[in-house]
């Protein structure tokens, strides 16, 4: 989807259309969750501190996130996908892989299916989507970003290696700023640079990830579209305008997070054995504390008790804490057999307090 959160806000509020919009908190502690294309023209990007975004775009309009609205639209879009294929692997609320080999409507062309899906999304949600059509997941994902917004990019098998060669390595899925910086120091800036390195060299510098990079640089990806990907964790976190220091206010803050996360646990019928507490101090140092129990955490009281026991481990917090979060991990099926619980990707939710 194109600038998904921001586009939903502009759709639902005509006064925001054509204006630079950022979804997120506008406070000094706020973070941009999504930016409209009008805002992106000023360099505003997701994960950017709100103060920086406001500096770059003085007319930027901040809108608080409405995650339930985004989830509703996401379900509409997935229903559209399901008309064409059963092999759908969601990556997030606004992005998914589709394997259309088994074409449910008999359209007979992946390109035509992509066009039909984009047209249906526009007609039924009032939003635009961009699609990448190719012979594997890696290339399709790269192609989906190539002609945004409201674009379509098709990469044929004989074009894959050349297409990848011309891209900066930062575009590769999984290559973040730090990895890109490391690659730059090693003289690797593009897919073509990466393709010149043999697998042993890549393994030496990037460990087990070297094999992925070796194949990716050549346009190779054998991974299937997994419609039954494993849901590994579910959680939530809050960022605070003022640092939390006293034990009382931290316990009160944790109780609020417990309410948020347990509501989501119940909604998705998730059960797990591991609870992780995340805390970020005022200097942005982030720590985690976790505990795994031998049985599934199916009781809210025990979930809350365990959360507070983890909080005990980081008290006192004299420096002050700007973020708290809880995540339930090691998810299992309802039978308690200990098997991984099937789901649609990894569920993670962030809430930013304005």
TrEMBL record:
The record marks 5 as: Substrate discrimination. GO terms for molecular function: damaged DNA binding; DNA-directed DNA polymerase activity; magnesium ion binding. It is an enzyme of class 2 (transferase). It is found in: Cytoplasm. One of its GO terms (cellular component) is cytosol. Its cofactor is Mg(2+). One of its GO terms (biological process) is SOS response. It catalyses: DNA(n) + a 2'-deoxyribonucleoside 5'-triphosphate = DNA(n+1) + diphosphate. It comes from the Bacteria. Mg(2+) binds at residue 94. Keywords: Cytoplasm, DNA damage, DNA repair, DNA replication, DNA-binding, DNA-directed DNA polymerase, Magnesium, Metal-binding, Mutator protein, Nucleotidyltransferase, Transferase. Monomer. Poorly processive, error-prone DNA polymerase involved in untargeted mutagenesis. Copies undamaged DNA at stalled replication forks, which arise in vivo from mismatched or misaligned primer ends. These misaligned primers can be extended by PolIV. Exhibits no 3'-5' exonuclease (proofreading) activity. May be involved in translesional synthesis, in conjunction with the beta clamp from PolIII. HAMAP family: DNApol_IV. PANTHER family: DNA POLYMERASE KAPPA (PTHR11076:SF33), DNA REPAIR POLYMERASE UMUC / TRANSFERASE FAMILY MEMBER (PTHR11076). This is DNA polymerase IV. The lineage of its organism: Bacteria, Pseudomonadati, Pseudomonadota, Alphaproteobacteria, Sphingomonadales. The gene is dinB.
